[in-house]
Structures are given as structure tokens and as C-alpha cells.
Amino acid sequence: MAATYDLTPNLIPYLDRHLVFPLLEFLSMRKIYPEIDLLKAKYELLAKTNMVDFISILYKTIHDTEEVPSEFTTKRNEVLQNLENLQTEAQRVLDLIENPEVIAALRQDKLQNLNFLKEKYGLTDEMVNSLYQFGQFQYNCGNYEGASDMLYHFRVLSTDHELNISALWGKLASDILDSNWEAALEEVHKLKEIIDQRNFASPLHQLQQRTWFIHWSIFVFFNHPKGRDNIIDLFLSPSYINTIQTACPWILRYLTTAVVTNKRRKNILKDLVKIIQQESYEYRDPITEFIESLYVKFDFEGAQRKLKECEEVLSNDFFLVATLQEFVENARHLISETYCRIHLKIDISGLSQTLNLDQEAGEKWIVNLIRDTRVDAKIDFKENTVIMNQNHTSIYQQVIERTKGLSFRSQVLASTIEKH
Q: Where's the PCI domain (predicted)?
């Protein structure tokens, strides 16, 4: 089952090779595929980078030898020489912009600063670009912190629009790989603004940029404390849900997990259910099927079976493994709440069984649920039941409830019609 629902092959085409490596490392830890196949995949992935020492280790492991081809030594010497040359060129610029007199004279206007540095200190565009080249080279060597630093300085000075965007992608990747989530989230917001406001040559090009952006952003959203709020807001916005439906429906796994594990955003569930239903012919897995079982079919036994499958899927997903316990806990809450809404009298033993809990744990669970959700109910411990008090919703409240999210759903429908 683990290999069946592994999304790594879907994700790889939209990731930089350095971002793919942690995914392959995770698969090695989970032992989902033969180790020799993953070693070969890592070798092919990194063969064109400057990480020569690590590539040599992979080569020795794969071929069970202590010898490596002579071209490895040649390439290593070339990398060290290029590194030294690029560092020398970049250091000239760094020395200049770290000069206290220069710092004191700089202003907020980038173009004004560049002209000032050109006129007074002889700074050239080639010198500024050396920061980009050095940052890119360090990235290819696996020095992600150093790469991020160089690309930051380059973006402070450069007025080259295209290189600035490229440097922003590079800095985002560097900060992801350096686990600098605060900086990475800032870059996610900047990139989104650029992609949304830029005039692309064709809608297809913008769609491709958004697809890449969605895949890179997942690294940040499932590691930053505010990430799961951000992923819901971004992925459910009309432009991005349209991108997901058109180019990468498997991203619904991550959106669904973010909604389930975020108790503050349960109001989004209705919209999520509709999207999952619309895309079920394109993509489904135990996580989306759990939502379908619970909110479309009201099949509580089916939802419980799917929840067990979700546990295996989550534990074998690089991005979601850390959400496993929270997902299961919240999913049980959703099952309980839905079950309570459609039953007037609930057998505690039956509900405990549905939740895969023993009698004592089930009783505690239901007591906590009623307390936390403020459900209007009474527990009869003598009969081992929960009695739900009916609350009749006014016509006015029903109209308000039914019209919530209408604008969003209309936009999604329009996008779906355009797609087909």
C-alpha cells in the first residue's frame, strides 16, 4: 500500500533536484523501495551537481568498491578552483557593501544606490552578478546557508528583473534546505505576488509557474507554525484551486490534511467536500476518501476503515508524517461530531467501536467532545447512552448557512467549466 499511494513520482517533475533529495532520503528510511534502487536514484539526481565528495560515496556504495573513476578527482579539483575564483570576485563586492561609510550612504531606492556605487566606487553589473554566480555555485555544492546569503545580497543590489526572480527561487530553495522557515515563508509570499501580478506570455506559462510554486510551498507550509492556515488560504483561492484541479490534483491530499488538522478552519469543510467530489475521477486516496465516506456517504464504518488506511499513508508521506497523531485525533472528532448530528440517541459502546477505542477510552472521548464542542447533550451512564437535544435552526439561519461560500463555489465552478 505504501508504494501505491507514494506521491514522490508525481512531485519530482516540479521540484529542483536538491529539493528531491530529502524525499529520497525519507523513502530510504521508510524502506518503501529496494535500497539499491534509491541509491542509484540519488546518484543520478546529484551527478550533475558540485557535491563531488558525496557523489563519490554513493558511487562506492553502489559498486561496492573503494575506488572511483579518475574524472571524480578531476571534477573535484575544478570545483575547488571555481569556488576559489568566484569567492574572490564576490568578496570584492561584499567588502564594498560592508564598508561602514557605504552603509551610511545607502538609501531605500535600489537604483539610486546602484548608481551611487557605480559612480563613487566603480561597481559594475558584472561585479553584482558575481554574487548571483557565487550563490548559485554554493547551492550546487550543497552550502545552502551560504547560497541564501549571497542571493540575498544580490537581490539587494541588482536591478535585473529576471535574475532577481531566479535568485528569489534560489533563495527559497536554499532556505527550505537550511530549514530557515521564517525566511522561506517570506519568500513564498514574495513569489506569489510576483507570479500573480506578472504579465506572462501565455496563460500556460503562468499555470506552470503556479504549479511549481505550489509544490515548493508545501515544504514551508508543513514546517512553519502558521503554515497550515496559509496553505488553506492559498490553495482554496480561485487561481490556485483552478491550478490544482487542472495540473496537480494530488495536491488535494495536502490541502485535505491541512483542513482536517486545523480545528479553527472547520468552516472550510463544505467547500473541500465539493472539490474532492469534483476531482474524485482524477485523484483519490484514503485521505480524500475518508472525507467522502464521512460527509458524502455518511458511512461511519467506511470512514473508520479509511482512517486506518490514512495512518499508513500519512506515516509514509515526507510532508505529512509529523501530522499523523493530530490527523487521527481530529478525524475522530469529525466522525463523532457528524455521528452526533444525525442521531438523537447514541450508544456509547457503538460509537467507541466506530472510533476504534475501548469502552473506557470511548467514554472519556465523548465526555471531552461534549465539553469541547459544547454540544447540547446529556450522558446517561446507567444506560450507557448519549441523548442529543434537538435544536431547530430558524429559516433565517438556514438561508445564511446555505449562502456561505456561494461566491467561492461559483468561482470554482466557472474555473471547472473553463477547464473542460
A: 220-393
